[in-house]
Design brief:
The protein has 316 residues and is α+β, with helices and mostly antiparallel strands. Helices cover 48% and strands 14% of the residues. Strand 5 and strand 6 form a beta hairpin.
Length: 316
């Protein structure tokens, strides 16, 4: 945005500042000077007579080759200052009106971004509450390591997924076992082989999880990941026996990461593996249980991970 202002007004300097509630400190500052960009996102005291005057008066300042306007939405949110340092060509009244109009549009964008960030905080708070509830119900042996979300999101990044898809992967990594809240604890804690009836109950958890989360509109993109993260690439998985590209991409990613964690983190019915053995097992099942392209990406990601993050089972 700062470069746009510089280009539009033939300026060589642009400062955009957002203020905290006290209006004495900036929360974020973007500076363009001679086409070089600097962003400061730490709390910094506002200094300078021009800046203080704009904040105090809530009005524009035009002084020769300097033009500054406030960002206002009921109160002053911040300000924009542009300067012409070459030839010192003065700004005129038309420039001032144009910058004020552009500032009004910038305020709308800023408020929308702030509302989005607030919404994300509410969503993440709700997710954390659901995860806390789930962890009180599901045995510790069935929970994931604290690094599971990082692994899943790293896979998404390696596959060049968009920001929204990676966000959905992050939420799904926290909530994909929500449906297990409805499984009897004696089945979840069983250390011997499950009966066919017990396994059928286990296989219902993706559908149950989707049913629990479906009323939350903002989590709609997460539902297909949760619903299908136990499908297999060759079509022998559950609940829908989807095959290959029929399985949502993010669900295929979750499938690999979930299986790897189950192997190295351990389950009541199965001995934990060392990481190298788990990686070999993932490679072995490429093309049958797992999407080969995702396995290739997983192998790249896991090499970058610190193997020590997978702690002992008694220290999750």
């Amino acid at each position: 945005m700062g470069r746009l202002f510089c280009q539009f007004f033939n300026a060589q300097y642009c400062l955009i500042v957002l203020l905290d509630s006290s209006k004495k400190y900036s929360t974020i500052k973007c500076l363009i000077k001679d086409n070089k960009k600097l962003i400061v996102d730490k709390r910094t005291k506002v200094s300078g007579r021009v800046e203080e005057k704009i904040i105090k008066s809530s009005s524009a300042i035009r002084k020769g080759s300097l033009l500054g306007v406030p960002l206002i939405c009921e109160d002053v949110l911040g300000f924009i200052i542009v300067k012409r340092t070459k030839f010192n060509q003065p700004f005129d009244k038309f420039d001032q009106e144009m910058l004020m109009n552009m500032a009004e549009q910038a305020v709308i964008g800023i408020k929308n971004l702030q509302l989005y960030e607030e919404q994300q905080k509410i969503v993440f708070g709700s997710i954390k509450s659901l995860v806390t509830l789930l962890n009180t119900r599901v045995p510790r042996e069935y929970t994931h390591s604290p690094h599971f979300s990082k692994l899943v999101c790293a896979l998404g990044c390696e596959l060049h997924l968009g920001e929204k898809q990676i966000e959905s992967l992050k939420y799904a990594s926290l909530l994909h076992d929500t449906g297990k809240i409805d499984i009897p604890s004696e089945i979840l804690t069983k250390t011997t082989k499950l009966t066919s009836e017990e396994y059928d109950i286990i296989k219902r958890h993706p559908v149950k999880g989707a049913q629990i989360l479906r009323p939350l509109q903002i989590l709609r993109p997460v539902i297909p990941i949760i619903m299908h993260h136990h499908e297999k690439y060759n079509g022998t998985g559950y609940p829908s026996r989807l095959k290959g590209g029929q399985i949502p991409l993010c669900a295929r990613i979750m499938s690999v990461a979930d299986a790897f964690e189950a192997m190295v983190y351990g389950r009541p019915y199965r001995q934990r593996m060392d990481i190298d053995s788990a990686v070999r097992e993932i490679k072995k099942k490429s093309g049958t249980q797992f999407d080969p392209k995702i396995v290739d990406s997983f192998l790249k990601v896991i090499r970058k991970f610190n193997k020590r993050i997978y702690l002992q089972q008694d220290n999750p």
